[in-house]
Amino acid sequence: MVASEANPFVKSGGLGDVTFSLSKELVVLDHEVAIFMPLYKAIKQNDVDKLQQVTTFDVAMSWRHQRATIYRTYADGIVYYLIGNEYYFDRDAIYGYDDDNERFAFFALAVRDALKTVSFKADVIHIHDWQPGMLPVLIREQNGSDPFFADCRFVLTIHNPAFKGIFDKYFLSNYYGLSDSLFDSGKVRYEDAVSSLKSAIVYADKISTVSLTHREELLTDQGGHGLRVVLESRREDFVGILNGIDYAEFNPHADPHIKLAYNAVDVTRGKGENKAALLARFHLSDRHQPLFGLVSRLTWQKGIRLIIAQARHLVNNGAALIILGSGEKELEQEFERLHLHMPDNVGIYIGYSSEVAHQIYAGSDFFLMPSLFEPCGIGQMIAQRYGTLPIVRYTGGLRDTIHGYTGQNDDVADGIGFETFDEGGMQYGLDLALSLYQDREAMLRMRRNAMKLDRTWNKSARRYEALYQSALGVNK
Protein backbone atom coordinates (compact mmCIF):
# COMPACT_ATOMS: atom_id res chain seq x y z
CA MET A 1 0.00 0.00 0.00
CA VAL A 2 1.21 3.49 -0.84
CA ALA A 3 -0.89 6.28 0.64
CA SER A 4 -0.62 9.75 2.10
CA GLU A 5 -2.25 8.68 5.38
CA ALA A 6 -3.14 5.57 7.35
CA ASN A 7 -4.40 4.66 10.79
CA PRO A 8 -3.34 4.20 13.51
CA PHE A 9 -0.74 6.91 12.94
CA VAL A 10 -2.46 9.73 11.07
CA LYS A 11 -5.68 10.36 9.18
CA SER A 12 -7.71 13.29 7.95
CA GLY A 13 -10.67 11.29 6.66
CA GLY A 14 -11.81 7.98 5.26
CA LEU A 15 -8.62 7.34 3.28
CA GLY A 16 -6.66 6.74 6.48
CA ASP A 17 -9.33 4.34 7.75
CA VAL A 18 -9.53 2.37 4.51
CA THR A 19 -5.78 1.98 3.97
CA PHE A 20 -5.36 0.54 7.46
CA SER A 21 -8.53 -1.55 7.71
CA LEU A 22 -8.12 -3.16 4.29
CA SER A 23 -4.47 -3.93 5.04
CA LYS A 24 -5.37 -5.45 8.39
CA GLU A 25 -7.97 -7.72 6.76
CA LEU A 26 -5.51 -8.77 4.04
CA VAL A 27 -3.11 -9.83 6.79
CA VAL A 28 -5.90 -11.99 8.22
CA LEU A 29 -6.19 -13.53 4.73
CA ASP A 30 -2.49 -14.47 4.99
CA HIS A 31 -0.96 -11.79 2.78
CA GLU A 32 2.25 -9.93 3.59
CA VAL A 33 1.32 -6.24 3.64
CA ALA A 34 3.46 -3.13 3.94
CA ILE A 35 2.21 0.45 4.02
CA PHE A 36 4.50 3.21 2.72
CA MET A 37 3.49 6.68 3.89
CA PRO A 38 5.10 10.01 4.88
CA LEU A 39 6.51 10.53 8.36
CA TYR A 40 4.55 13.59 9.44
CA LYS A 41 5.34 15.83 12.37
CA ALA A 42 2.37 14.48 14.34
CA ILE A 43 3.68 10.91 14.05
CA LYS A 44 7.12 11.93 15.27
CA GLN A 45 5.55 13.70 18.23
CA ASN A 46 3.19 10.89 19.23
CA ASP A 47 4.87 7.67 18.13
CA VAL A 48 8.61 8.37 17.99
CA ASP A 49 9.39 5.56 20.46
CA LYS A 50 7.85 3.02 18.05
CA LEU A 51 10.03 3.99 15.08
CA GLN A 52 13.19 2.19 14.01
CA GLN A 53 15.45 3.92 11.50
CA VAL A 54 16.22 1.55 8.63
CA THR A 55 18.19 3.52 6.06
CA THR A 56 18.74 6.91 4.51
CA PHE A 57 19.46 8.05 0.95
CA ASP A 58 19.34 11.10 -1.32
CA VAL A 59 16.42 11.74 -3.66
CA ALA A 60 17.24 13.81 -6.76
CA MET A 61 14.53 16.09 -8.13
CA SER A 62 16.30 18.00 -10.90
CA TRP A 63 18.47 20.53 -9.05
CA ARG A 64 16.92 19.59 -5.69
CA HIS A 65 18.61 16.97 -3.55
CA GLN A 66 16.54 15.98 -0.55
CA ARG A 67 17.37 13.36 2.06
CA ALA A 68 14.91 10.52 2.66
CA THR A 69 15.17 8.71 5.98
CA ILE A 70 13.21 5.48 6.15
CA TYR A 71 11.72 4.29 9.44
CA ARG A 72 9.94 1.02 10.17
CA THR A 73 7.25 0.12 12.66
CA TYR A 74 4.46 -2.43 13.02
CA ALA A 75 0.74 -2.47 13.79
CA ASP A 76 -1.78 -5.34 13.56
CA GLY A 77 0.53 -7.51 11.48
CA ILE A 78 1.27 -4.72 8.98
CA VAL A 79 4.78 -3.38 8.48
CA TYR A 80 4.88 0.40 8.02
CA TYR A 81 7.68 2.15 6.18
CA LEU A 82 7.59 5.87 6.95
CA ILE A 83 9.34 8.30 4.61
CA GLY A 84 10.99 11.04 6.64
CA ASN A 85 12.09 14.46 5.40
CA GLU A 86 11.95 17.52 7.66
CA TYR A 87 11.59 20.07 4.86
CA TYR A 88 8.53 18.42 3.32
CA PHE A 89 6.80 16.67 6.21
CA ASP A 90 7.67 18.43 9.49
CA ARG A 91 4.57 20.60 9.21
CA ASP A 92 1.48 21.04 11.35
CA ALA A 93 -0.98 19.78 8.72
CA ILE A 94 -0.92 16.88 6.26
CA TYR A 95 -2.19 18.81 3.24
CA GLY A 96 -3.06 22.32 2.18
CA TYR A 97 0.33 23.76 1.25
CA ASP A 98 1.27 25.56 -1.97
CA ASP A 99 4.02 23.01 -2.60
CA ASP A 100 1.89 19.87 -2.08
CA ASN A 101 2.69 18.68 -5.62
CA GLU A 102 6.42 18.95 -4.87
CA ARG A 103 6.03 17.27 -1.47
CA PHE A 104 4.27 14.24 -2.91
CA ALA A 105 6.60 14.10 -5.92
CA PHE A 106 9.38 13.59 -3.39
CA PHE A 107 7.22 10.98 -1.65
CA ALA A 108 6.63 8.97 -4.86
CA LEU A 109 10.31 9.08 -5.82
CA ALA A 110 11.38 8.09 -2.30
CA VAL A 111 8.92 5.17 -2.19
CA ARG A 112 10.25 3.86 -5.52
CA ASP A 113 13.80 3.87 -4.15
CA ALA A 114 12.77 2.62 -0.70
CA LEU A 115 11.10 -0.48 -2.12
CA LYS A 116 14.45 -1.68 -3.43
CA THR A 117 16.44 -0.44 -0.46
CA VAL A 118 14.37 -2.40 2.07
CA SER A 119 13.97 -5.31 -0.39
CA PHE A 120 10.17 -5.37 -0.29
CA LYS A 121 9.54 -7.03 -3.67
CA ALA A 122 5.81 -6.55 -3.97
CA ASP A 123 3.58 -8.59 -6.24
CA VAL A 124 1.12 -5.70 -6.22
CA ILE A 125 1.68 -2.03 -5.42
CA HIS A 126 -1.69 -0.62 -4.42
CA ILE A 127 -1.73 3.19 -4.62
CA HIS A 128 -4.43 5.43 -3.20
CA ASP A 129 -5.60 8.73 -4.74
CA TRP A 130 -3.45 11.36 -6.43
CA GLN A 131 -0.57 11.74 -3.99
CA PRO A 132 1.40 8.61 -5.10
CA GLY A 133 -0.19 8.67 -8.57
CA MET A 134 3.07 9.13 -10.49
CA LEU A 135 4.67 6.04 -8.93
CA PRO A 136 3.55 3.58 -11.65
CA VAL A 137 4.64 6.09 -14.30
CA LEU A 138 8.10 6.35 -12.74
CA ILE A 139 8.58 2.60 -12.45
CA ARG A 140 7.19 1.76 -15.88
CA GLU A 141 9.14 4.51 -17.64
CA GLN A 142 12.40 4.56 -15.68
CA ASN A 143 12.68 1.05 -14.21
CA GLY A 144 11.00 -1.04 -16.87
CA SER A 145 14.07 -3.23 -17.41
CA ASP A 146 14.85 -3.65 -13.72
CA PRO A 147 14.20 -7.30 -12.68
CA PHE A 148 13.15 -6.12 -9.22
CA PHE A 149 10.04 -4.46 -10.68
CA ALA A 150 9.53 -6.69 -13.72
CA ASP A 151 6.66 -8.78 -12.32
CA CYS A 152 5.05 -6.06 -10.21
CA ARG A 153 1.50 -4.95 -10.96
CA PHE A 154 -0.24 -1.72 -9.98
CA VAL A 155 -3.72 -1.20 -8.58
CA LEU A 156 -5.16 2.30 -8.11
CA THR A 157 -8.06 3.11 -5.81
CA ILE A 158 -9.84 6.41 -6.40
CA HIS A 159 -11.22 7.67 -3.09
CA ASN A 160 -11.89 11.31 -3.97
CA PRO A 161 -11.87 12.24 -7.68
CA ALA A 162 -12.32 15.93 -6.91
CA PHE A 163 -8.57 16.13 -6.17
CA LYS A 164 -6.49 15.21 -9.21
CA GLY A 165 -2.93 16.31 -8.37
CA ILE A 166 -2.68 18.86 -11.19
CA PHE A 167 0.65 20.55 -11.96
CA ASP A 168 2.34 22.36 -14.85
CA LYS A 169 3.97 20.14 -17.47
CA TYR A 170 7.32 21.83 -16.72
CA PHE A 171 7.44 19.88 -13.47
CA LEU A 172 7.14 16.55 -15.27
CA SER A 173 10.87 16.86 -15.90
CA ASN A 174 11.68 19.22 -13.06
CA TYR A 175 10.25 16.98 -10.32
CA TYR A 176 10.23 13.50 -11.83
CA GLY A 177 12.87 13.47 -14.58
CA LEU A 178 10.23 12.27 -17.04
CA SER A 179 10.11 13.15 -20.73
CA ASP A 180 7.74 15.77 -22.14
CA SER A 181 6.77 13.12 -24.69
CA LEU A 182 4.46 11.62 -22.05
CA PHE A 183 2.59 14.92 -22.03
CA ASP A 184 2.62 15.29 -25.82
CA SER A 185 1.23 11.75 -26.25
CA GLY A 186 -1.60 12.52 -23.84
CA LYS A 187 -0.70 9.76 -21.38
CA VAL A 188 -0.31 12.14 -18.43
CA ARG A 189 -1.97 15.24 -19.88
CA TYR A 190 -5.10 16.63 -18.29
CA GLU A 191 -6.42 19.67 -20.15
CA ASP A 192 -3.28 21.85 -20.44
CA ALA A 193 -1.46 20.43 -17.41
CA VAL A 194 -0.46 17.10 -15.86
CA SER A 195 -2.68 15.17 -13.45
CA SER A 196 -1.09 12.54 -11.26
CA LEU A 197 -4.51 10.89 -10.78
CA LYS A 198 -5.18 10.70 -14.53
CA SER A 199 -1.63 9.37 -15.00
CA ALA A 200 -2.26 6.62 -12.46
CA ILE A 201 -5.48 5.64 -14.27
CA VAL A 202 -3.52 5.25 -17.51
CA TYR A 203 -0.59 3.31 -16.02
CA ALA A 204 -2.32 1.10 -13.42
CA ASP A 205 -3.14 -2.49 -14.32
CA LYS A 206 -6.44 -2.37 -12.45
CA ILE A 207 -8.51 0.49 -11.04
CA SER A 208 -11.12 0.55 -8.32
CA THR A 209 -13.30 3.05 -6.60
CA VAL A 210 -15.06 2.65 -3.31
CA SER A 211 -18.65 1.77 -4.25
CA LEU A 212 -20.58 0.27 -7.14
CA THR A 213 -22.72 3.35 -7.68
CA HIS A 214 -19.73 5.70 -7.63
CA ARG A 215 -18.12 3.66 -10.39
CA GLU A 216 -21.19 4.21 -12.53
CA GLU A 217 -21.23 7.91 -11.66
CA LEU A 218 -17.59 8.33 -12.67
CA LEU A 219 -18.41 6.93 -16.11
CA THR A 220 -20.87 9.79 -16.77
CA ASP A 221 -20.24 13.37 -17.88
CA GLN A 222 -22.14 14.79 -14.93
CA GLY A 223 -20.53 12.68 -12.22
CA GLY A 224 -17.14 11.97 -13.77
CA HIS A 225 -15.23 14.94 -12.32
CA GLY A 226 -13.54 15.34 -15.69
CA LEU A 227 -12.28 11.73 -15.67
CA ARG A 228 -15.04 10.05 -17.70
CA VAL A 229 -13.11 9.74 -20.97
CA VAL A 230 -9.97 8.19 -19.48
CA LEU A 231 -12.00 5.89 -17.21
CA GLU A 232 -14.16 4.84 -20.15
CA SER A 233 -10.98 3.77 -21.93
CA ARG A 234 -10.22 1.53 -18.91
CA ARG A 235 -13.81 0.37 -18.30
CA GLU A 236 -12.94 -3.33 -18.40
CA ASP A 237 -10.25 -2.86 -15.74
CA PHE A 238 -12.37 -0.59 -13.52
CA VAL A 239 -14.46 -1.95 -10.63
CA GLY A 240 -16.41 -0.68 -7.65
CA ILE A 241 -15.70 -2.27 -4.27
CA LEU A 242 -17.60 -0.99 -1.26
CA ASN A 243 -15.57 -0.09 1.81
CA GLY A 244 -16.11 -1.76 5.15
CA ILE A 245 -15.62 -0.38 8.64
CA ASP A 246 -13.33 -1.47 11.45
CA TYR A 247 -15.48 -3.56 13.79
CA ALA A 248 -12.79 -3.52 16.47
CA GLU A 249 -12.83 0.27 16.65
CA PHE A 250 -16.56 0.78 16.17
CA ASN A 251 -18.31 -1.67 18.46
CA PRO A 252 -21.21 -0.44 20.62
CA HIS A 253 -21.02 -3.64 22.68
CA ALA A 254 -17.46 -2.86 23.83
CA ASP A 255 -16.76 0.82 23.21
CA PRO A 256 -14.68 2.46 25.97
CA HIS A 257 -15.69 5.96 24.86
CA ILE A 258 -19.44 5.67 25.46
CA LYS A 259 -21.54 5.82 28.61
CA LEU A 260 -23.17 2.38 28.33
CA ALA A 261 -22.27 -0.52 26.04
CA TYR A 262 -25.21 -2.11 24.24
CA ASN A 263 -26.26 -4.39 21.42
CA ALA A 264 -29.34 -4.87 19.25
CA VAL A 265 -31.23 -6.57 22.09
CA ASP A 266 -30.95 -3.70 24.58
CA VAL A 267 -30.54 -0.90 22.02
CA THR A 268 -33.41 1.20 23.41
CA ARG A 269 -31.83 1.42 26.87
CA GLY A 270 -28.34 1.82 25.45
CA LYS A 271 -29.35 4.63 23.12
CA GLY A 272 -31.26 6.35 25.91
CA GLU A 273 -28.35 6.37 28.36
CA ASN A 274 -25.82 7.46 25.75
CA LYS A 275 -28.14 10.17 24.49
CA ALA A 276 -28.56 11.60 27.98
CA ALA A 277 -24.79 11.60 28.48
CA LEU A 278 -24.20 13.25 25.11
CA LEU A 279 -26.73 16.01 25.78
CA ALA A 280 -25.15 16.61 29.19
CA ARG A 281 -21.66 16.80 27.69
CA PHE A 282 -22.82 19.59 25.38
CA HIS A 283 -24.92 21.28 28.09
CA LEU A 284 -28.15 20.80 26.14
CA SER A 285 -31.51 20.35 27.81
CA ASP A 286 -32.85 16.77 27.84
CA ARG A 287 -36.53 16.80 26.88
CA HIS A 288 -36.47 13.32 25.32
CA GLN A 289 -36.35 15.15 21.99
CA PRO A 290 -35.03 13.68 18.71
CA LEU A 291 -31.28 14.25 18.48
CA PHE A 292 -29.54 14.75 15.13
CA GLY A 293 -25.75 14.26 14.99
CA LEU A 294 -23.09 15.28 12.50
CA VAL A 295 -19.45 14.09 12.33
CA SER A 296 -17.88 15.50 9.20
CA ARG A 297 -15.40 17.69 7.45
CA LEU A 298 -17.16 21.02 7.14
CA THR A 299 -16.98 21.54 3.41
CA TRP A 300 -19.29 22.19 0.48
CA GLN A 301 -19.16 18.56 -0.70
CA LYS A 302 -20.77 17.30 2.51
CA GLY A 303 -23.99 19.30 2.12
CA ILE A 304 -23.24 21.36 5.23
CA ARG A 305 -25.13 24.38 3.92
CA LEU A 306 -28.29 22.28 3.63
CA ILE A 307 -27.97 21.39 7.31
CA ILE A 308 -27.38 25.01 8.31
CA ALA A 309 -30.40 26.10 6.27
CA GLN A 310 -32.65 23.57 8.04
CA ALA A 311 -31.23 23.88 11.58
CA ARG A 312 -33.92 26.30 12.76
CA HIS A 313 -36.60 24.08 11.22
CA LEU A 314 -35.30 21.18 13.34
CA VAL A 315 -35.17 23.20 16.54
CA ASN A 316 -38.61 24.71 15.93
CA ASN A 317 -39.93 21.17 15.68
CA GLY A 318 -38.48 20.22 19.06
CA ALA A 319 -35.20 18.61 17.97
CA ALA A 320 -31.60 19.09 19.08
CA LEU A 321 -28.50 19.17 16.89
CA ILE A 322 -24.87 18.29 17.76
CA ILE A 323 -22.03 18.97 15.33
CA LEU A 324 -18.42 17.78 15.37
CA GLY A 325 -16.05 18.83 12.60
CA SER A 326 -13.76 21.39 11.08
CA GLY A 327 -13.05 22.73 7.64
CA GLU A 328 -14.13 25.85 5.79
CA LYS A 329 -13.91 28.77 8.17
CA GLU A 330 -17.17 30.30 7.01
CA LEU A 331 -19.09 27.09 7.78
CA GLU A 332 -17.45 26.81 11.20
CA GLN A 333 -18.58 30.36 11.95
CA GLU A 334 -22.14 29.59 10.78
CA PHE A 335 -22.37 26.75 13.30
CA GLU A 336 -20.92 28.96 16.02
CA ARG A 337 -23.67 31.51 15.31
CA LEU A 338 -26.32 28.80 15.48
CA HIS A 339 -24.99 27.71 18.86
CA LEU A 340 -24.92 31.32 20.06
CA HIS A 341 -28.56 31.88 19.08
CA MET A 342 -29.85 28.44 20.20
CA PRO A 343 -27.50 27.34 23.02
CA ASP A 344 -30.05 24.95 24.58
CA ASN A 345 -30.59 23.05 21.34
CA VAL A 346 -27.39 23.23 19.27
CA GLY A 347 -24.03 21.84 20.46
CA ILE A 348 -20.80 22.27 18.53
CA TYR A 349 -17.25 20.90 18.68
CA ILE A 350 -15.04 22.63 16.12
CA GLY A 351 -12.12 20.26 15.55
CA TYR A 352 -11.91 16.51 15.90
CA SER A 353 -12.09 14.13 18.83
CA SER A 354 -12.37 10.38 18.36
CA GLU A 355 -13.97 10.09 21.81
CA VAL A 356 -16.65 12.67 21.05
CA ALA A 357 -17.26 11.17 17.60
CA HIS A 358 -17.99 7.76 19.18
CA GLN A 359 -20.35 9.43 21.65
CA ILE A 360 -22.24 11.14 18.82
CA TYR A 361 -22.58 7.87 16.93
CA ALA A 362 -23.90 6.15 20.06
CA GLY A 363 -26.08 8.93 21.48
CA SER A 364 -27.79 10.39 18.42
CA ASP A 365 -31.09 9.20 17.01
CA PHE A 366 -30.27 10.31 13.47
CA PHE A 367 -26.99 10.93 11.64
CA LEU A 368 -26.78 13.65 8.98
CA MET A 369 -24.93 12.97 5.73
CA PRO A 370 -26.58 14.95 2.87
CA SER A 371 -23.55 14.91 0.56
CA LEU A 372 -23.40 16.39 -2.93
CA PHE A 373 -21.21 13.43 -3.85
CA GLU A 374 -19.85 10.65 -1.65
CA PRO A 375 -17.69 7.96 -3.26
CA CYS A 376 -18.42 5.57 -0.39
CA GLY A 377 -18.87 7.22 2.97
CA ILE A 378 -17.97 5.59 6.25
CA GLY A 379 -19.91 7.73 8.71
CA GLN A 380 -23.29 6.34 7.66
CA MET A 381 -22.07 2.75 8.15
CA ILE A 382 -20.62 3.53 11.57
CA ALA A 383 -23.91 5.17 12.54
CA GLN A 384 -25.84 2.06 11.47
CA ARG A 385 -23.50 -0.09 13.56
CA TYR A 386 -24.58 1.98 16.59
CA GLY A 387 -28.28 1.86 15.72
CA THR A 388 -28.30 5.52 14.67
CA LEU A 389 -30.34 6.03 11.51
CA PRO A 390 -28.51 7.92 8.72
CA ILE A 391 -30.25 10.65 6.74
CA VAL A 392 -28.45 10.77 3.39
CA ARG A 393 -28.76 12.12 -0.10
CA TYR A 394 -28.75 9.21 -2.50
CA THR A 395 -25.36 9.40 -4.20
CA GLY A 396 -22.38 7.06 -4.54
CA GLY A 397 -21.92 4.73 -1.61
CA LEU A 398 -24.76 6.36 0.29
CA ARG A 399 -27.16 4.86 -2.23
CA ASP A 400 -25.46 1.47 -1.92
CA THR A 401 -25.57 1.32 1.89
CA ILE A 402 -28.97 2.77 2.82
CA HIS A 403 -32.31 1.00 2.45
CA GLY A 404 -34.46 4.11 2.75
CA TYR A 405 -37.58 4.48 4.89
CA THR A 406 -40.69 5.43 2.94
CA GLY A 407 -43.12 5.75 5.83
CA GLN A 408 -44.34 2.17 5.58
CA ASN A 409 -41.34 -0.16 5.20
CA ASP A 410 -39.80 -0.05 8.67
CA ASP A 411 -39.51 -3.86 8.57
CA VAL A 412 -36.62 -3.58 6.06
CA ALA A 413 -35.46 0.06 6.15
CA ASP A 414 -32.22 1.03 7.90
CA GLY A 415 -32.03 4.77 7.20
CA ILE A 416 -33.61 7.69 5.36
CA GLY A 417 -32.68 9.01 1.93
CA PHE A 418 -33.65 11.75 -0.49
CA GLU A 419 -32.75 12.46 -4.11
CA THR A 420 -32.45 16.20 -4.78
CA PHE A 421 -29.51 18.16 -3.43
CA ASP A 422 -31.44 21.19 -2.23
CA GLU A 423 -33.24 22.51 0.83
CA GLY A 424 -36.47 20.82 -0.21
CA GLY A 425 -34.79 17.41 -0.36
CA MET A 426 -33.11 18.01 2.99
CA GLN A 427 -36.38 19.05 4.61
CA TYR A 428 -38.12 15.97 3.20
CA GLY A 429 -35.56 13.72 4.91
CA LEU A 430 -35.71 15.63 8.19
CA ASP A 431 -39.52 15.67 8.30
CA LEU A 432 -39.62 11.94 7.64
CA ALA A 433 -37.24 11.47 10.58
CA LEU A 434 -39.29 13.72 12.87
CA SER A 435 -42.40 11.72 12.01
CA LEU A 436 -40.62 8.37 12.45
CA TYR A 437 -39.35 9.39 15.88
CA GLN A 438 -42.93 9.44 17.16
CA ASP A 439 -43.33 5.73 16.33
CA ARG A 440 -41.23 3.90 18.91
CA GLU A 441 -41.86 0.44 17.49
CA ALA A 442 -40.83 1.49 13.98
CA MET A 443 -37.71 3.21 15.35
CA LEU A 444 -36.75 0.04 17.23
CA ARG A 445 -37.22 -2.16 14.17
CA MET A 446 -35.11 0.15 12.00
CA ARG A 447 -32.38 0.42 14.62
CA ARG A 448 -32.15 -3.36 14.77
CA ASN A 449 -32.19 -3.58 10.97
CA ALA A 450 -29.22 -1.22 10.86
CA MET A 451 -27.29 -3.01 13.60
CA LYS A 452 -27.55 -6.44 11.99
CA LEU A 453 -25.97 -5.30 8.69
CA ASP A 454 -22.63 -6.88 7.82
CA ARG A 455 -20.20 -3.99 7.27
CA THR A 456 -17.03 -5.95 8.06
CA TRP A 457 -14.02 -5.74 5.75
CA ASN A 458 -13.93 -9.47 4.99
CA LYS A 459 -16.15 -9.44 1.91
CA SER A 460 -14.51 -6.30 0.50
CA ALA A 461 -10.98 -7.59 1.18
CA ARG A 462 -11.76 -10.78 -0.73
CA ARG A 463 -12.90 -8.69 -3.69
CA TYR A 464 -9.61 -6.78 -3.56
CA GLU A 465 -7.81 -10.11 -3.35
CA ALA A 466 -9.58 -11.18 -6.55
CA LEU A 467 -8.65 -7.86 -8.17
CA TYR A 468 -4.98 -8.41 -7.30
CA GLN A 469 -5.13 -11.94 -8.76
CA SER A 470 -6.68 -10.51 -11.91
CA ALA A 471 -3.93 -7.89 -12.20
CA LEU A 472 -1.34 -10.66 -11.87
CA GLY A 473 -3.12 -12.82 -14.45
CA VAL A 474 -3.81 -15.54 -11.89
CA ASN A 475 -7.11 -17.43 -11.84
CA LYS A 476 -8.17 -18.36 -8.33
Under CATH, the homologous superfamily of the largest domain reads Glycogen Phosphorylase B
Count of individual helical segments: 19
**CATH-defined fold name of the largest domain:** Rossmann fold
Which regions have little confidence, pLDDT < 50, spanning 5+ residues? none
Largest sheet: 6 strands, parallel
Distance, first to last CA: 22 Å
What's the β-strand tally? Answer: 17
Rounded mean pLDDT is 96
Overall helicity: 25-40%
CA radius of gyration is 23 Å
Strand order of the largest sheet: 14-13-12-15-16-17
CATH class call of the largest domain: Alpha Beta
Structural classification = alpha/beta
How many discrete domains?
2
CATH architecture descriptor text of the largest domain:
3-Layer(aba) Sandwich
Strand proportion, as a percent range, falls in: 15-25%
Shape category: globular
